[in-house]
Write a structure and sequence with these properties.
The protein is α+β, with helices and mostly antiparallel strands. It has helices at residues 11-23, 75-96, 128-136, 143-163, 168-182, 191-196, 200-216, and strands at 48-51, 59-65, 100-109, 113-122, 222-227. A hairpin with a 3-residue loop joins strand 3 and strand 4 (113-122). The termini are far apart.
């Protein structure tokens, strides 16, 4: 068990908090614990269609695909590439085709990641998957074009890292996640330097490795569709 305390505490208050923890959690007898080995998240398989009558004829859709893990060397370039793709998805899927209320990319999981494309409140049935693939293909074609936009997305990435740290609970969450998943409570503070050191070539390479294959179909997207019984089969995601 790992415990992180964040607050404006003086020395006596710190001692008091530690004493309470020792008297409660510290009184629990220790025993051997074997850390569970988390396997890679499976992203292959047929489309999952789940009926939820409360959704009516609106679709709540998620596309799952392979992506790098948080400590992989190409995770930061990949994350920047997805930020660029988010703008394409929003423009093509939402603004040009009016398919959804909102759309974007992200990751699922904790110890292990899978990439995700989220389509929130999808209201059109036809060519959903085809339109998403069109958006995924809409990416700068060379390093020069990536470099023209790179600083904008680097700043966006760095801002998101510290956005939660504006509150004590958010700061505690950052420290805890860093401690558990990266082995050090302060490892997350290295992320801005990793972002700043990322090159246009690395971002383009990450796009070509993880996202371009989704656009051309060489890497399948596994779709999960949630909607009412009268509409759940109508969404054309494959």
């Amino acid at each position: 068990m790992k415990i992180v305390i964040v607050g404006n505490l003086d020395a006596d208050e710190k001692k008091g908090a530690i004493s309470i923890l020792n008297d409660t959690l510290g009184a629990i007898s220790s025993r051997d614990f074997e850390k569970t080995q988390i396997p890679a998240i499976e992203t292959n398989g047929e489309t999952v269609r789940e009926i939820c009558e409360a959704a009516g004829e609106t679709g709540y859709i998620e596309g799952i695909f392979p992506c790098p893990q948080r400590t992989d060397a190409d995770y930061v370039p990949y994350a920047i590439a997805t930020m660029m793709i988010d703008d394409s998805i929003f423009r093509i899927v939402r603004e040009e085709n009016g398919m959804v209320y909102s759309a974007g990319t992200g990751v699922l999981g904790a110890s292990r990641f899978a990439g995700a494309i989220s389509l929130f409140k999808t209201t059109k049935f036809e060519k959903v998957g085809e339109t998403v693939k069109k958006a995924l293909a809409d990416f700068p074609k060379n390093e020069k074009q990536v470099a023209e936009k790179l600083n904008q997305y680097k700043n966006q990435f760095i801002t998101t890292i510290f956005d939660n740290a504006r509150t004590a609970s958010g700061l505690a969450a950052n420290i805890t996640a860093s401690w558990i998943y990266r082995g050090s409570p302060s490892a997350y503070l290295n992320r801005p330097a990793e972002v700043e050191n990322t090159t246009a070539a690395q971002v383009l390479e990450a796009y070509q490795k993880y996202i371009a294959p989704l656009a051309d179909g060489s890497t399948p997207i596994r779709w999960v569709v949630v909607s009412g019984s009268s509409s759940v089969e109508k969404f054309e995601v494959e």
